[in-house]
Amino acid sequence: MIARALKLSAFVFAFLVLSSCSDDDDDTFANVTVNGTMLSISPSDFVVGDRSDFNGDIDASFTGNGGTAIRIFSWNNNLSTADYNADITATSEGSFQIIVRDSEEAVVLDRTIQGGTEPDSIDGVTSSGASGIWTVTIEVTNFNGDGSFSLSEGN
Length: 155
Description:
Blueprint: H1 2-21, E1 30-34, E2 37-38, E3 54-55, E4 58-77, E5 82-90, E6 95-101, E7 107-114, E8 121-125, E9 132-153
Parallel strand pairs: 3-4
Antiparallel strand pairs: 1-2, 1-4, 4-9, 5-8, 5-9, 6-7, 6-9
């Protein structure tokens, strides 16, 4: 009797877990990975503090299957500018946007790459800003494809 009850409980538990995780109506996603770490911080979760999430060069990638995501991280930049580079391989839909703010929250970079158009890459040097902990916002919107971006302390 106990074995039967345990089997029934296990079946009910498995059914509830599997049915609650199933999402057949929406297979879209968008992921952002920085220096090997998948970012899960959204704008509502982010609090600017006195420590950075990353030090040194940023090497990041993103993928999407029609999804939209906004991810934010902090980065320690000891200089007043940053070198940046971004490249996408995408269908005609979607976009990639990078916004970088200096330690005083001034926007030093705001660039977008639109899928299916040229150029499909951007690079350069940010505007001059205050050194310290910078905030980087990555937004992929209805993005189909993949891409990468990098940041490093400027000259």
